[in-house]
Specification:
Length: about 150
């Protein structure tokens, strides 16, 4: 008899805890706002997403990098005539280092570092990815920072 009472109490507890009324009662409803997708990104294939320490969202796409500040999207494009533009499109990876710089790596063997405070883009040498005397090859890119602050590619 005691076993049946315990089993019933356990069943009742599980039932009450899993009911929508019990789960919704303890948590406030959060507002959800859908973002516009038409024309918001430079390209629809997102390859990497990052939220930096200031809350800015960074989206890597096959058409460049886009940022979203909660109000509007901004594109960071690739233009060989502009020094503060990306080295290329087809962005593979985004990474934030401990100093707050955003590292942007491309599938075709290029790597840039963006200072979000100034917008300045530093282009790192393509020789990091191998020989530069031939067309770039498809590069699988990973970025990591060690305890001494060195960024590993």
């Amino acid at each position: 008899m005691r076993e049946q009472v315990l089993r019933f109490a356990l069943w009742l507890f599980v039932l009450l805890c899993s009911s929508p009324v019990a789960s919704a009662a303890g948590s406030p409803e959060l507002p959800v706002e859908r973002l516009p997708v038409n024309g918001a990104l430079t390209q629809n294939s997102i390859t990497s997403i990052l939220q930096d320490r200031s809350g800015l969202m960074w989206f890597a796409t096959l058409g460049g990098v886009n940022t979203y500040d909660g109000y509007r999207f901004r594109a960071i494009s690739s233009d060989p005539r502009a020094p503060d533009s990306l080295s290329g499109v087809m962005v593979a990876k985004l990474f934030e280092d401990r100093d707050g710089a955003i590292w942007v790596g491309g599938f075709l063997g290029w790597l840039d570092r963006i200072d979000p405070r100034t917008g300045k883009v530093t282009h790192l040498p393509r020789s990091l990815f191998g020989r530069t005397d031939r067309p770039p090859e498809f590069a699988n890119l990973g970025l990591w920072q060690d305890a001494q602050g060195l960024v590993w590619i």
